[in-house]
Design a protein that fits this description.
Elements (H helix, E strand, L loop, with lengths): L8 H15 L6 H11 L3 H18 L2 H17 L3 H18 L2 H16 L7 H15 L2 H17 L3 H15 L4 H17 L3 H16 L5 H20 L5 H21 L2 H17 L3 H17 L3 H17 L3 H26 L8 H22 L3 H27 L3 H6 L12 E8 L4 E7 L2 E7 L3 H15 L7 H12 L4 H7 L3 E5 L24 E4 L18 E5 L4 E3 L2 E3 L5 H12 L2 E4 L5 H10 L4 E10 L7 E3 L4 E3 H13 L6 E9 L4 H8 L1 H5 L3 E5 L5 H17 L5 H13 L13 E5 L3
Parallel strand pairs: 1-4, 4-5, 6-9, 6-10, 10-13, 13-14
Antiparallel strand pairs: 1-2, 2-3, 7-8, 10-11, 11-12, 14-15
Helix pairs in contact: 1-4, 1-6, 1-8, 1-10, 1-12, 2-3, 2-4, 3-4, 4-5, 4-6, 5-6, 6-7, 6-8, 7-8, 8-9, 8-10, 9-10, 10-11, 10-12, 11-12, 12-13, 12-14, 13-14, 14-15, 14-16, 15-16, 16-17, 17-18, 17-19, 18-19, 21-22, 24-29, 25-26, 29-30
Amino acid sequence: MQSPRSRWVPRLLCCALLCASAAHSATPAESKREAQALADRGSFEEAAVSWARLAEGCRRAKETDGLIDALLGQGAAQQALGRQRLAMTALAEAVELARQSNDRRRLISGLNLLGVAQTFSHAAEHAEEHFREAAKLAQAEGEPGLQATVANNLGILLAGQGKLDEAFAAHQKAAAWAARASPRLLTGIRCNLADVALRRHDFPSATQLNREAAQTAAGLENSHAKAFALAHCGQTWELIFAQSPAHEQKLRAEALNAYRQSAAVAEAIGDARALAYALGYTGHLYEQEKKYADAQPLTRRAAFLAQQARAPESLYLWEWQTARMDAAQGRREEAVAGYRRALRSLGEIRNDLSARLGNANARSSFREAVGDVFFELADLLLQRADGERDEQAVTAALVEARDTCETLKSVELEDYFQDDCVSLLRAKTKAVEQLAEGAAVIYLIPLKERTEIIVGTAGKLQRVKAAVGAAELTATVRAFRLHLETRTTEEYREEAERLYGWLIRPLEPLLAAAKADTLVFIPDGALRTIPMAALHDGKKFLVEKYAIAVTPGLTLMEATPIQRTQVNLLTNGMTEAVQRDGVQYPALPFVKEEIGGLQRVYGGTSLMNGDFRKDAMRDAVLKQHFSVVHIASHGEFTADASKSFVLTFDDRLGLNDLEQIIRPAQLRDQPVELLTLSACQTAAGDDRAALGLAGVAVKAGARAAFATLWYVNDEASTTLVSDFYRELHEDQNLSKAKALQRAQIKLLTQPRTSHPCLWAAYLMIGNWL
């Protein structure tokens, strides 16, 4: 299997090194030459330390120029190591010092490098302004090398934003300037031109540009940049082969030649980091051809070199590659050990990798990049359980498989939200199956050939296999979601019954034996985008049989009952139509009735229309503890957490805003028990947006969220929400999941509101008790 992450790493490093070399082409002091020499041969860890030491010396001596150069070098080295946050800290200081000194050339270098770090971090929205400023300054300087470097990096940013034509034009300008300045610059730019041409599916241009890049690289003096440029070209040959309709075998031969040249350069200069990539990619080429006898020694040596170079961002790739090959040859136990090593190595860099992937320029999410490592290990562990006769050994395999997927879910949320909100909750959460009396916790794991279902009931784990692979399951889920939202048709029934047959019917004997009355689903991928309540057995909806809740992960909720004795309610709502950023949001007239009904039952504080502002909500929560926070307003969850919001009268309440308002209560051990988001929506087919909805309670610091997958008819929504709260109030022993069940059944049994479009969108997320 091709590793998506391995197809992207060298491009990032190549770009970062391109900038670093431009910023430090001449350093007179011996210490500067030594630090730059370390970077030139790929010893970035040592280079970062050397630059940091030099920076401290210059700081003490108050040598501003030397300090700026040292900070620029330190930032470039941290970039090459994938540590974008550390890079940005050093580079931001360098930029500020250069501004104060009115040092235009150093300011250009600083802005350029800072833009690169921001491009591949969660601060990508600031990169373009830095590149634009650097471009103006470089134009005034009139030096082709500076102009080429800035234009190249602007092209990388634009390509990551999907503006491929603009990106190609920027790289072309950069190439024209680089041709007058530096073959090394020109090599990297041609590599990036070939990348953009490939993304435009212009295979002839990509082939020609990559050939030119390889030729230019071959003429460079031996260096880390040359070794990586050649490896980059090899990667591009492989991608052209895989994506172009012709599938010309000669392209794989070209890739092999490029990797061998890269390895020779790395050997000559003693660059363990670059050599690990060259050998590892060669091993991957052989792996694709199932030439394991050739691939394995190369991959093992690549792993050894990555360890030697202290390069975990490379090491996990080769450990993963070794594990895949062991699994392909039936060596399951060796493969399991290999996957465990890969996940340990990945754990060392997952925060940096997550930060880099949490922006549009990475072109993938953490899950897309490395999720297969987790799922492939889980698959092997589940296969191991098949062969075990000892019950304890079976349970151990199931627990490890489940926990492996659980780790991925936690990192996915950290990746989506770009903070450590997940860690705050995991540190204080017990294993939920020990607390789940009367409930069945259903863990869904879609694999390539089947779907595994792990069921936890009263501390006991059991396992069922569904004969449907991830691709077919996802396609059915997509169709189900689209049909559910169409009130005028009952086409959803076909998918509802098919999904029930795969995911629920095989569990029925287990659920009956456990006398379960509540199902807590831990869905994955596309399954997050649908309401399980609307699955159908041919006679009844699932919600007519069980109360239903979902949670993003076992360790991401606190299963404790809601406190009923003192329910302090904060209601926030919008009834008026508003316009934001050119989007017209319609009035929600029934919200007044919804909020009024809650006030009559619970009392509390209410912020409506003009009173519903960020500052007012923040002030209210600071003054008083609220166990329930209810927001009835338009809201959207998107694939980009920074663009997900709930509409207030004066602004958009982002997820970070919500966290700043609500989380302090959790830190005081007075968490919000329930956060309700009425009238929110996520786009059909957007798994990442649904991930945000699934984790909103974790992000905000609430124990549970009550929210919608899509915008529900205002009148039906008001009825369902009012009934839900009334049930909670009238029956002190009723769980939140059962209160929702009763409210949904009330609607579905009435002809006017029987369609699941009107009642199924509401989810109880997190603590269901």
